[in-house]
Task: structure prediction
Amino acid sequence: MSHAITHEESLDQFSEQIEFVLNTYTPHNLDLNKYSNILLGGLGGSGIGAKIAADFMQSSLSVPTQLISDYNLPAYVSEKTLIILSSYSGNTEETLSLLAQAEEKHCDIVAITAGGKLLDACKQNGYKTYSIELGFQPRMTLGYSLSTLFLIFGELAGVDFTADLQQVMKDLLNKEALKQKAKTIIKAFKGFENDKYVTICDGKTFAAGTRFCQQLQENAKAEGFLSILPENNHNMIESYYGAHKTNFILFNSGTNNRVNKRFGFIKELLVKNNNRVFDLSFNDFSVSEIYKAIYILDWVSVYLTDERGEDNMLIPNIIDLKGFLSN
Result:
C-alpha cells in the first residue's frame, strides 16, 4: 500500500470487505453436534464481530457461546470445545495465549487473521483459517470478521447468510443516505461534542452498542459508555434526575414488548429533564439492519473526530502501552 488507508476510505469501501468474504469463504465442514460449547477469542475491533454474530445466533445455536477478551480460557474448556480466534494482526498477545491453551486442551481451532504468529501457527498445524486483506487499521476491518463469522455460525446452525450479506452490499450502495443519518446524529449533539456519550441498548443490541463505544473511544477520543435494559431500570435510572452533561443514544432492537415499554419510559424521562436524546432504535432487527446501524455509527465516530479536533488514525496511548508491556 502506498499510504495508510484512512477510516473514511475504509468505510467508503466497506461493501468490498463483504464481497471479499463472499468470494473467498470456504466451508469448514464442522459438525455442531460434536461440541458442548463454542468459545470466541478476540479483543477490540477483532473481538467485537464475534460477539455481534454470536448474540444474533443465540436462537439458532444449540450450544452456548462465549467471547473471551482476556489471557485465559475457562476451566470447563475441553476437546469438545470449538475455539474461534480473531486477530487482525495475528500478534495480539492475549489471543495467542488463548491459542496455546486451546492446543493444550486439544480443542478444534478456527482462526480469522491477516497474518502474524496466529497465521503461522495455523499453517503449521493445519487449522482452518480465514484471511483478511492487509493495509487497514484493525478496528476498520469489521466487514471482514463479522461477515466471516456469520458464515461460520450459519454453517454450524444450517443457516445460509449469503443472501443476507448480499442484501447488505445492496444497502450500502445507498451509503450517502447512511452518512447523512450519521450527520443528523452529530447535529443533534452540536455544541456538546465534548460531553460523554451513553448508549442505552438491550440484549440484542449490546454487542453493536459496544462497537460504537469502542469507535468513539479509539477514533474520536471521546468517553463512550453502555447501559443495558432492563438492568438499567433497576439501578442507573435513579441517576436520571435533571440534565446531564451527556449525549444519550437509544439503541433498541424492538424484539421484546416489555423492553420496548421500558425504552419509551426512559426516553420520556430523559427528555422531560432536558437531556439530549437521539433514538436510533430498530424497526426491523435483521442482519442487514445491524450492518446499517454499525455503518452509521462508525461514521458518527469519524465525523465526531473532526468536530473534536482529533486525529482518528493516531492511538498514542495504545502504542505507549504496547511499548511498556514489551519491556
